[in-house]
Amino acid sequence: MAYHASIPGFERTPLRALKSLSAHLGIKGFYVKDESFRLGLNAFKALGAGYAMGKWIGERLGIADEDLTFDRLVRDEAKKRLGPVTFVCATDGNHGRGVAWMARLLGQDCVVYLPKGTAPQRLERIQACGARAEILRLNYDECVALAAENAGKYGWVLVQDTAFEGYETIPAWIMQGYLTMALEAIEQLRDIVPTHVFLQAGVGSMAGSVSALLQEHYGERKPLIIIVEPNKADCIYRTARQGSLQTVTGDMDTIMAGLACGRPNPAAWAVLSQTADYAVSCPDWIAAWGMRLLGNPHGDDPRIISGESGAVTAGLASALTQREDLAWLKNLLRLDSGSIILCFSTEGDTDQENYRRIVWEGRYPNA
Ligand SMILES: Cc1ncc(COP(=O)(O)O)c(C=O)c1O
């Protein structure tokens, strides 16, 4: 947290209490951490890349963890010792924007690969941070493989938000970076202890990181942790069912672009298998429901602009409490009038065109 606080422009994001909505849904509390305010980047992801890239440079310069601050990484003498660095990653959009943004802040180069089907606006935002970025005719996991291959070939530094054999250190730092989001939420909740925390997962790094912290912080009082994924890319759900790492292949055609990952991060799964309680695989309309729900607040509740991957958890939580056909799952999760829900809206309207299509034009209507 101290390192993050040293990054220019860093501020903590708001935790919204949706009082009117929780009364409407018949629960005790509904809290949403609004990551659309994070670092002006509209998503939480830069917390991970920003920390990992700082830590990587810090190690090269021999800076101890407790002394790691942003200004020490960009001093002239530090840059002279370091020489030029090129960071590379694959991304659905949000992670790449975080890497490109941090590279620019650090005065270093950056290369970013995006999978086919990525919204052009996401590419442009990454290019606007000065990165050499392109949309390839590959899916997400194939882009990750290419980024790793080219890092080896050209001596670039791979900053990937998932681990694989022989590549574990930087993904672990990325997960550590995400801890700031969870720590802020815990601080903002003060003495309120949530009973249910819904965490969306792509490769599971964010969920693993937050779950580990919830376990450590709350101990015996740890809330029920529910992992939420699109049903087209539900690798954690399948892994949980099988008890061993499962992969989803193909195009993973879902509106939840940030969660369209087919291969769990093994390090994240190691944590989730110990700390998470349930995994839910969701159709796209649940995310669309969440976007509309948060964007059109009940009563005096604050408005939250939440994108597809950000809104699916709030969408699920509200669908569970409102829909007869989901009553079985509501009962299984013990959601009742004493429940206090915490969700992380991990992105804002990162795809503005699709946001409008869903929220204004009513695409992906409730099933
Ligand atoms: C907005 C958003 N939410 C959640 C996630 C999921 O994070 P992870 O891949 O660590 O599970 C992502 C990943 O890119 C994302 O962009």
Number of helices: 16
Characterize the overall form: globular
Residue windows where pLDDT falls under 50 for at least 5 positions: none
Q: What portion of residues belong to β-strands?
A: 5-15%
The kinds of small molecule bound in this structure are: pyridoxal-5'-phosphate
Strand order of the largest sheet: 1-2-10-7-8-9
Average pLDDT reading = 96
Q: Output the radius of gyration.
A: 20 Å
Number of strands: 10
Give the oligomer, counting copies of the same chain as homo and different chains as hetero: single chain
Largest sheet: 6 strands, mixed
Percent range of helical residues: 40-55%
What is the fold's blueprint, element by element?
Layout: H1 2-5, E1 15-17, H2 19-25, E2 29-34, H3 46-60, H4 70-74, H5 76-82, E3 86-90, H6 94-106, E4 109-114, H7 120-128, E5 132-135, H8 140-154, E6 157-158, H9 169-189, E7 196-200, H10 205-218, E8 224-230, H11 235-242, H12 266-275, E9 278-282, H13 284-295, H14 308-322, H15 327-332, E10 340-345, H16 352-359
Parallel strand pairs: 2-10, 3-4, 3-6, 4-5, 7-8, 7-10, 8-9
Antiparallel strand pairs: 1-2
The site of pyridoxal-5'-phosphate has 21 residues, from helix 6, helix 10 and helix 14.
Q: Any key phrases for this structure?
A:
single chain; 367 residues; alpha/beta; 6-stranded mixed β-sheet; 4-stranded parallel β-sheet; 10 strands; 46% helix; globular; binds pyridoxal-5'-phosphate
